[in-house]
Amino acid sequence: MAGNDHHIIQWAVASSSRGKICTGFRISELTLHASTKPTGFLVFLGSTSQVLTVDPVNVEYMLKTNFANYGKRWSNDITVIDLLGEGIFNVDGKKWHHQRKLTSYEFSTKTLRDFNNVVSRTNAIKLAQILADQAAASNRSIDIQDLFEKATLDSAFKVIVGVELDVLCGTFEEGIRFSDSLDAARSLIVHRPVDFFWKIKRYLNIGSEALLRKCIKQVDEFVYKILNSKIEEQVQNSSHGDQGIQMKKSEDVLSRFLEAKQTDTKYLRDMIINLVMAGKDTTSVALSFFFYMMCKHPYIQEKIAKEVIEATQVNQNSSFDELAANINANTLDKMQYLHAALTETLRLYPPVPADGKVCFSEDTMPDGFKVDKGDLVVYLPYAMGRMEFLWGNDAEEFRPERWLGESSRFHPESPFKFTTFQAGPRICLGKEFAYRQMKIFCMILLASYVFKLSDENEEVKYDSSLTLIFVGGLHLIATPRVIHV
């Protein structure tokens, strides 16, 4: 997808006597101008048949009602297993249940929630200071997407692994190399499905596959080094415990896994990569598109800034640290309009624009569409966010108020209608963590700066592989905000 909401999704379609056939469609024609409810569409991409749906009833059936019949596509395992391994986002069945249960428990603890808030405040302050040093003083543009990618990686790695990468400030060379290798590996992995010769290249260890193998090797060396160090530290802590020395409860996810006697390094490596990539990629995309929408709707930017200033009681002389210190559970709860604006951004620009599950046995969707064994059933969060039958005639408009009830408090929608965080048993474990992190970053930045696009006339374009991303970055100008008290 390119960036003006009227792009063409090119589907290579073959004729068939089965189902309803699309010969290719404009995303705007399928979504933006649809006043009636589309059902499923059967599309052929090479030898793979895909059923596309934007119907919440079908989505609920697949993700919840008949959950056991829809799971990860086996071709996904082949293309991404080198990087993701058997992590939680790449497995089904018992392996998934075990990881989900363990991770769900840890993500529900107050200790981890509080740690996430502390880490988010720390990295938001760093980012605000970078803007003060590099952008605000000279009124020059900055690539906010690049900064968010670095900041969210730092946050995710600290919360999951307990190690400070500091990619944002560039003080840790090993951390920078790990970040570069992880990004390169991810980029190479997502292009495998369109490279008909990738298996041959992998066998011969040439071209892109040789580079991918090198990048994954660098990623693994860094992660296993940390794992071995953490396991050794855990052994030492256990021996201290035997001597009656009370140890502080661990805050990061990895340390808590080790305390739960999870010591299989391959298992932990796969879990780390899956959680870190999920925490970094989706949150950085959401923040980037949120600030893009703030620039496109300056009056909403001002309304949110006012909400932040009133909640935190900051003044013209408040430092970034003082502002961050006033962000707590109470002030976060007051940010109802910010929460609505973030959700409205996710409705129109979901980080993962399309998601699918393979059908394990022949089935019939609630709308009557027949699905064969092996079909990939794809629901489209990007399209669903623009459907008039779901959101009304103003589905194209960025209107945070649609999420607020009469009391001006946030009013959620069904996760099968608003599918950004998936739904059912696989609903995103990090949803609340992501919201808190995004709100903390937005509160500190919007209370400190006014943002605008560096070139109001330039057409901003975005593309999608696994996630939406601005092509060439998102270049903004940040001006110090004058607070009126």
UniProtKB/TrEMBL annotation:
Organism placement in taxonomy: Eukaryota, Viridiplantae, Streptophyta, Embryophyta, Tracheophyta
MF GO annotations: heme binding; iron ion binding; monooxygenase activity; oxidoreductase activity, acting on paired donors, with incorporation or reduction of molecular oxygen
Binding site for heme: 428
Keyword annotations from UniProtKB, A to Z: Heme, Iron, Metal-binding, Monooxygenase, Oxidoreductase
InterPro entries, per the entry: Cyt_P450, Cyt_P450_E_grp-I, Cyt_P450_sf
Official protein name in the record: Cytochrome P450
KW Ribosomal protein (keyword) present: no
Species whose genome carries this gene: Acer negundo
Needed co-factor(s): heme
Record has Oxidoreductase as a keyword: yes
Family: Belongs to the cytochrome P450 family.
